[in-house]
Amino acid sequence: MNENIPIHPHVIGLTGGIASGKSSIAKRLENLGVFIVDCDALGHRAYLPGTKCFKDVLQAFGDEIKDANGTINRKALGSIVFSNRDALNKLNSIVWPQIAELAKAEIKKLRTEGKDIVVLDAVVLLEANWNKFCQEVWVAIIPPEEVVKRLMDRNGLDPDAAWKRVKVQFSNQERLKVADIVFSTLWEPEFTQKQVMKAWDEVEKVLKSSSL
Fold first, then answer.
1. How many helices (H) does the chain have, and how many strands (E)?
2. Three-state DSSP class for 118?
3. What is the pTM assigned to this prediction?
4. 3-state secondary structure of 85
5. What is the fold of 10-210?
6. Domain extents for the chain?
7. pLDDT per residue as tens digits for the range 132-184
8. 70: phi > 0 → left, psi -120 to 50 → alpha, else beta; which?
9. b/e per residue, 118-154, with b = 16+ CB within 10 A?
10. Residue 92 and residue 19: Cα distance in Å, rounded?
């Protein structure tokens, strides 16, 4: 539990690697009435034409990553950075600070609106050190072999391309070191729902006890 940030709202950092089922967990929490700050959506905002991030990314990677309509083609950009660690680090150094500012603004806005619980949903929550904005961290994990299978089935990637996506991310072991709650979406959806409800009950108990 992070005690070095404002206690209201209670911010839960939700993370997990690509194809871990993190987004389905976020959706289940949203159905419980939790407000989700979606860092992937904020990333899309950061890339919009006219933003500082847009200009800096084009300067770093060239106009060839633009679509015909003048926006950044994130698929083309991904093909560059996921095969080159230095390029990925360069992109992250540009984009992550911009997303962090947008996320902090969203949390501040929700604080003024009186929201009790907010989930900061981010694949790179730990890599970007955004967990410093959160009271606790919830992690979704599945075996890397299952990630590769899902990427091949869902994204049409070949095995080599899928493994590259896995290897540039934090490992399950690295995520588990800082996790307060751990989920796995390896089994039936009903089991995932039970995991979510158990975690939700626990956080509600903590909040109720702190308000006494």
1. 9, 5
2. strand
3. 0.88
4. helix
5. Rossmann fold (3.40.50)
6. 10-210
7. 999 999 999 999 999 999 999 998 999 998 998 888 889 999 999 999 999 99
8. left
9. bbbbbbbbbbbebbebbbbbbbbbbebebbbebbeee
10. 20
